[in-house]
Amino acid sequence: MTPLVSVLIPVYNCEKFIAEALNCTINQTYRNIEIIICDNASTDGTWDILEDYARKDSRIKLFRNEENIGIVLNFGKCIEKATGEYGKFLMSDDLSSETFIEHALPLFDNDTAFVFSGVRLFFTDPQVVFQESAFQQKEVYSVQEYLEDILIYHKKGFPVSPGCTLFRMDDLRKSFVVDIPNDENLDFKKFGTNDFLYYLITATRYKTVKTINEVESFFRCHNNSITMSNIEKVMIYYGWLQYYFVKNYRKDLLKKFKARLFVFKLYKKGYDKLYSSIKIRPSYSCCLYLIYDTIKTKIMRKLKK
Questions:
Q1: Is the distance from CB of 155 to CB of 149 less than 8 angstroms?
Q2: Is 164 a member of any domain?
Q3: 202 Rama sector, left if φ>0, alpha if ψ -120 to 50, beta otherwise
Q4: Domain that holds residue 44
Q5: What are phi and psi of 215, to 5 degrees?
Q6: Cα dist. 34→44, 105, 114, 130, 162 in Å?
Q7: Does residue 294 carry a pLDDT above 70?
Q8: What is the DSSP letter of 145?
Q9: Domain tally for the chain?
């Protein structure tokens, strides 16, 4: 018996891209899937497109919020409605290869937290490469190696968006956190990056993370993207998320994490309350990688042309 895999697609006003996302999902070579779509009170033609697809494929299960409940809670609704043993998110403007699930599922074992594929960033044509990840060139990472890199060193370029990753649904439920304490009145319900915690919290329960040794996820860069249109704000949210995780789950990494934030402070403004709350001192300064990747700078420059 093949396990049921839930593909979770949170949507809002995505009539321009949603058909492409649905096509790559319904055409997955692994057939035992359900497609959970939660529409966050779209005001464009998104819902009509969804209903049309649902009439043609019984695996599509549609849910519609009466009002916009925010990104994080809509993600949570997708998780709540899923009935599969495994699950993957697909953002409504992104794409997956049709073999993604077929290739990811067999890599799971009792020690594996999750499986992700390589990622290609693109603008209009997914076959035209703007940037591609390289972390997938190694197929197995220890959890310690993974956490230290994604929280501190930033050398591998591991993804923070779950759109390229297959999880156990039980782990997604256990890793779903809504409210993140912070000193800047940030509302993680309405504008959050909480899905990063799916990775971090899940990793603490296992020994390894694995990759499909090829690019099978395609992230679209465009001006209406929440990340690209709010890059400074997004990075502040990520900072608080990471602090929340380290403080509550991996205190052994706190000193190194503070050191990395201090280096970041030398270059960017806006983290003052976070620095104050975790008592960063200059003695922690050391040559660690900044939270910003050069790729983000390149994308913003490209979009402004």
A1: yes
A2: yes
A3: alpha
A4: 5-231
A5: -85, 120
A6: 25, 15, 19, 31, 17
A7: no
A8: H
A9: 1
Is 305 a member of any domain?
no
Strand ranges (E), 112-267: 112-122, 131-132, 140-142, 165-168, 208-220
Which CATH number characterizes residue 163's domain?
3.90.550.10
Lookup: tokens for 115: 């499986």
pTM: 0.85
- Percent pLDDT > 90 in the chain is 63
What confidence tens digit (pLDDT) does each residue in 234-249 have? 777 888 888 899 999 9
Buried b / exposed e over 119-134, threshold 16 CB at 10 Å, is bbbbeeebeeebbebe
- Residue % of the chain over a pLDDT of 70: 81
* 238 domain residue, yes or no: no
Write down the pLDDT at residue 75.
96
Tens of pLDDT along 144-190? 999 999 998 888 999 988 999 999 999 999 999 999 988 778 888 87
- Whether 279 is covered by a domain: the verdict is no
- Helix (H, G, I), strand (E, B), or coil: what is residue 295? helix
- Give counts: helices (H), strands (E), the chain: 12, 10
Question: What b/e string do you get for 161-198 counting C-beta neighbours within 10 Å, with b at 16 or more?
Answer: bbbbbbbbbebbeebbbeebebeeebebbeebbbbbbb
Instruction: Give residue 152's identity as a one-letter amino acid code.
Output: I
